[in-house]
Amino acid sequence: MRTVKMNFAQKLEDVHAKYKLDIDTLQRKCDSLKKSLEQKSHAAHESVILMKENTRMTAKIKALTTENETYRKQVNEECRKSDERVAKVSTQLSELHVKHEIVTSENKNMASRIERLQDKLEQANNDVTKQIPHIAKLEDQVLRLTSDLEEVNQKQKMELAIAENNFKTTT
User: How confident is the model at residue 4 (pLDDT cuts 50, 70, 90)?
Assistant: First the structure.
């Protein structure tokens, strides 16, 4: 009986030791699960925060994408307008170039005409210069003839006056 008691006590101690070991193992597993749960809870909380941040960033990306698209449209519109202005200015420059060429050609023609007229003027001046002595002689002759004419007029007036006087006295 003693042996049975001992065996029973031994078994009881073995069961108790096993129970204690199982409790310790279960306690460690429980602690490990608690830690794991805390980590997962913390990770889940971080995941929720990250999901919220992701949602906020996605909304911000969409807003920025929309804004970027608006800017792209504005840039495209400004480029189109700029291209139109460039085309218009290019056309105007072409027209001005043609007008410039016409004016340049007209200027060359006018310069040529002016040169010809200047040549003619110089020739006429030379002819006039050659005629000056002849003209001076003619002016002298005109003056002499005018003087002679005056003398003749005076003489005739005197003769007429004398003749009139003679006529009046004879009558």
Answer: low
Give the span between the Cα atoms of 71 and 83, in whole angstroms: 18
Question: Which of the 8 DSSP states describes residue 41?
Answer: H
- C-alpha distance from residue 46 to each of 40, 43, 59, 60, 145 (Å): 9, 5, 19, 20, 134
What token pair was written down for 109?
């023609």
Cα–Cα distance for residue pair 120/8, rounded to 1 Å:
157
Q: Which long-range contacts (CB under 8 A, 24 or more apart) does 155-163 make?
A: none
In this predicted model, what pLDDT tens digit does every residue of 107-127 receive, in sequence order? 999 999 999 999 998 998 888
Residue carrying the six token digits 């105007």: 92
Six token digits for residue 161 = 């006056």
Q: Is 159 exposed, middle or buried (0-12, 13-18, 19+ CB in 10 A)?
A: exposed
Higher-confidence residue of 21 and 67: namely 67
